[in-house]
Amino acid sequence: MLRARFVYLGSRFLQMLVVLWAIATILFLIFRYMPGSPLTAYIDPTFTQEQEAAVRKQFGLDDPMIVQYGIYLKNLTQGNLGVSFFQKQPVWDVLMDAAPNTIILTSIALLIAYIWGVVIGSFFAWWRGSRFENTGILLTLMTRAAPEFFVGMLLLSLFSFNLGWFPTSGIAGPGVLFDSVWAQLRSGDFWRHMILPVATMAIYLQGLPTLLMRSNMLEVLDEDYVVMARMKGFSEWRIMMAHAARNAMLPIVTAMTLGVGYAVGGNVVVETVFSWPGIGQLLVRAVQSHDYPLAQGAFLLIAVVIVVMNFVADVFYSILDPRVSTTRNEVG
Amino acid sequence: MIPSTTVAPVTEAAQPKKHGLLTGALAPIVLVFKRDRSARAGLIIYGVMLIIAIFAPLIAPHNPTAVMEVDGIWQSNKTPGSDYLLGTTNIGRDIFSQLIYGTRPALYVGFTAAISTVVIGTMIGLISGYFGGMVDLFLMRLTDVCFGIPFTPFVIVLVAFLGPNIWNIVLAMSLLFWRDTARVIRSQVLTVRQRPFVQAAKLAGASDARTIFLYVAPNILALSFLYGTLAIGWAILTEASVSFLGFGDPSTVSWGYMLQDAYVSQALGRGAYYWFIPPGITTMLAVMAGFFISRGFEEMLFPRLRGR
Amino acid sequence: MTKPLLDVQDLHIHYDTDNGVMKAVEGVSFTVGAGHHLGLIGESGCGKTTAGRALMRVMPRNASIPHGKALFKGRDLVQLSEDQMRELRWRELSMVPQASMDSLNPVHRVGRQLVEVLTVRGEFSKRDALERASELFDLVGLSRDRLSHFPHEFSGGMRQRAVIALALALNPDMVIADEPVTALDVIVQRQVLQTFRQLQDRLSLSVIMITHDISVVAETCDEVAVMYAGKIVEWATVQTFFNEPVHPYTLGLQNAYPNLAKPDMELISIEGYPPNLLNPPAGCRFAPRCPFSQERCFAEEPPLVNVGPDHKAACHRADEVDMLREQAKFPATWQQSIENG
């Protein structure tokens, strides 16, 4: 039984590597063809032709594509993402500075969204057809239909500009610099700044788990084993928790791991609205300024997170659902 | 976005259809609208949007990009009143007119993206599921790659590369949106392919193309439409995000553009609700209409027995 | 006769559907004595599963019991509150549902599902529950080390037996078994039926065996009730049922099954379909398909009356049964029934 699972996951892992390679290659091609000379940051308009050629040589921009590609791949496997044109630092360092902000924001928002979704979705299914459910569904659809940044704008306008409860942007007051991630987490100011962005993301993200949980619960509640549980005389509470919810939740777990991927890609927008210095904001600024190593690095990082999380979702699912990836051994 | 791993197995909504693509297959789609109230509501919303879009020049009092001047003075930041129904922007453009004209890009983007999603996704899903083997392997890895690429960042990068033009935005979306559809269609094709009536057709000598078009496709069309209608919403939201981030088409006044304009001009700080709330609401309505229609398809494909 | 364990009187069950009210069960009455096995026979859609689920009071959302009583150990199951029903479910009355394969929760191990019922609804400690679970497995002929397996690792027949073990866990007074062997192959069918017989002998359990297969009834039951279109059309002991059937539908049923004693006998099926229960016909519900129906049958519903000791039937022509029984043996008789309709 275990062997089958290993084989299955092993092949999924290899597929993951192939996908990562393909994405890296696509990125390489896209960014090499981006308009706007990559050198503008380094080249002073007063450089002579020779000096320009020298700089080109230094960055390897003279070599044929294939060679550049080879160097690119080699660098990637070593974790070398190049040097940012504008920040003059290794891309990796720039990204790692910004990463904690994105990670904290995204994880908290996801956690809140999914817990909320599982609970509310179950209630919707349980009280199916009630007014509570009907208005609830409508509201949930509205949160999925409204652009994330619009919700952010609404929250900002109401709570920041109007009521003044929360700051309008950034992760801390002006001029504040944190020594480390721990210092950041311990700062009340940081949390105050985080509330609106987290709320905005959570509002948008909860739509999926809510609808999914409701949908799964409705299916599960019709399943024979739930009818059986009722016949056994179990209390409604036990039926819902131990039998229905447990089974309905399987897809939620995978959805959540996949959700990480979507959230990380999507919070580009939220980070912009709140000027939150995370990877998403870095990406946007890098693209705008044609800082292509940085843009490429940020993009790649996001893609890697998504692909890895897709794989993790496969792992979770195979563990949680004993029917998946085990061989059936039917006897007599 | 619906993670594909959670699509429930499709029950046979009706007898396996063996009619030609147009007659037999479209009938259940029409039926969805007849039966489902929310699907009709969605259709009506789009109908209204379409009419507004077509007759925009007649409905909108002013040109959306024109700066309003009265006696040489720019009419900036006017609050809603009899002259300008929703007030003006910070450089004096009429917000109401912008809102009206905004239906056009929303519809273009929504529907072209939906169509390309349906067409590309269905074709890939069909071919992959039907032919199997190396073709399937290749196409599915391609799909995996698309799943690994984050939406919004990709569209931004591509648009920065190709130029901020609404058609480039649609192109960028078309390159990625088909992924969910392809997976689901393929999965459904795999099921249908095993069914006796398909195997019988092949035994009787039907060519692959014929088998696909006459036998397999009609059974998956409703599923394609489901994803197509969902794609309308995704597309409108993505265009709005892209415009908001500043990569939108500067010559087109879309609702996303309006929101960006408002944000960048500190409309929030000035409490200019009349500027940023209307386009947000219209966007939300447009996306919801797509959701409503897709719910109709969903009910048809995965019927929930009423009180079992 | 001592007071029966279960006394169902004039039970009506309705379903509220999009197309109207479906009268699935109309005025059904039967009794089951302590330690007796009653076979409830009928074709699919006749209401037998509905009746079974109604006794457990676990029915689809749109079902209701507008009229009737179901006296179980003196208490009317129809009138009990949900809490009271929940108390007695499984402890006194349990069910082996149709298509039991799916009645086991796929993500819990089978042993765990047994233990759960024993600890939560019985007064067992965890350890005692495990012991009891093992005994139950022995009882139904399943190997003890299968307790730690998941349902999908069992074959269909094994799952069926596991559900039977579950149904017996708390030593109920009565078990309602709905098509317990229908989805199984013949050999496994035999094993399961044998298990039932053994249980009947060892545990003095009362059973309502719901099935469409009269050979199952022959194996395990003491009494038989035949249902058609939501009504009981005949009630008899099993010997009487096979030797002296009265109702034309029963006569037809017997013809449709192969008989080892008469291997050359031609099988005759009953043409036609049961009536639409949204708008049931006025007279006898079997009349359209009955080869012996007369005008009276279409106009007036025949009541279920005694036609012999421990034998009831609902047929206007019950007194002519000898002649009808003779005629029923010929295929030609049944051909005519279509024209009659």
What would you say about this model in short?
Chain B is an all-alpha fold and 308 residues long. Chain B contains 12 helices and 2 strands; from the N terminus they run αααββααααααααα. Chain C has helices at residues 48-56, 82-88, 110-121, 126-140, 156-168, 186-203, 214-220, 238-243, 248-256, 295-299, 321-328, 331-340; strands spanning 6-17, 20-32, 37-41, 63-72, 75-76, 93-96, 174-178, 206-211, 223-228, 231-237, 305-308, 311-313.
Write the layout of secondary structure elements.
The complex is a heterotrimer of chains A (332), B (308) and C (341).
Chain A (H helix, E strand, L loop, with lengths): L1 H31 L16 H10 L6 H13 L13 H36 L4 H15 L2 H15 L18 H5 L2 H18 L1 H16 L1 H8 L4 H13 L1 H24 L5 H10 L3 H29 L12
Helix pairs in contact in A: 1-14, 4-8, 4-9, 4-12, 4-14, 5-9, 6-8, 6-12, 8-12, 9-11, 9-12, 10-11, 12-13, 12-14, 13-14
Chain B lengths: L22 H13 L1 H18 L1 H4 L9 E2 L2 E2 L20 H7 L1 H29 L1 H16 L2 H12 L3 H29 L1 H8 L4 H37 L10 H10 L8 H29 L7
Antiparallel strand pairs in B: 1-2
Helix pairs in contact in B: 1-2, 1-10, 1-12, 2-12, 5-6, 5-8, 5-10, 6-8, 7-8, 8-10, 9-10, 10-11, 10-12, 11-12
Chain C lengths: L5 E12 L2 E13 L4 E5 L6 H9 L6 E10 L2 E2 L5 H7 L4 E4 L13 H12 L4 H15 L15 H13 L5 E5 L7 H18 L2 E6 L2 H7 L2 E6 L2 E7 H6 L4 H9 L38 H5 L5 E4 L2 E3 L7 H8 L2 H10 L1
Parallel strand pairs in C: 3-8, 3-9, 6-7, 7-8
Antiparallel strand pairs in C: 1-2, 1-4, 4-5, 9-10, 10-12, 11-12
